[in-house]
Design goal:
162 residues, alpha+beta, 3-stranded antiparallel sheet, 5 helices, elongated
């Protein structure tokens, strides 16, 4: 098996358009609205993965762009409905601590979704490990409380030991 390189992923797989067409047909009368919207989303959907993070963009009238650094990623989910399984596709949902209930980014139309998920987990862990080595215990502003609590703990231990 050849090594997985997400840097080569720039566009979704052609099967995603088939999936969009089937979903649009299943909406019945909504086909006239749904199919053009999903067609333009498919045609303009672009992905980019680099050393710092990943980005996704789409849209004609309303341009949507999302950029996430790997260290912001909190969790990654992989989902497939029956049509996606039949077409060999999946959706990789990336969640951050942004405060929203839903995922920050849904990466659609990737045939090697498990390998992408594993890659993202590795990059997420690697980014956090690099932060810890570069900054010691305080990697983020919210970790200042943790550092302070550790200092208090150490002071109490020294006081109890004497």
């Amino acid at each position: 098996m050849e090594p997985f390189d997400p840097r080569k992923i720039e566009r979704p797989h052609a099967s995603l358009m088939k999936y969009y067409a089937i979903i649009s047909i299943l909406t019945g009368p909504g086909l006239l609205v749904q199919l053009p919207r999903l067609f333009f989303k498919y045609e303009t959907l672009k992905y980019k993965f680099d050393d710092d993070g990943m980005s996704m963009s789409w849209g004609v009238l309303f341009k949507h762009e999302i950029f996430l650094t790997y260290r912001r990623i909190q969790d990654i989910h992989l989902s497939r409905d029956i049509l996606q399984r039949w077409l060999g596709l999946a959706t990789v949902s990336v969640q951050t601590a942004s405060g929203s209930a839903g995922p920050e980014m849904n990466i659609e139309g990737i045939p090697q979704a498990e390998r992408l998920r594993d890659y993202l987990y590795a990059k997420m862990r690697g980014a956090r490990d690099a932060d810890e080595h570069a900054h010691g215990d305080a990697t983020h502003p919210e970790d200042e409380a943790l550092v302070l609590l550790r200092e208090i703990r150490d002071l109490l231990r020294r006081k109890n030991a004497s």
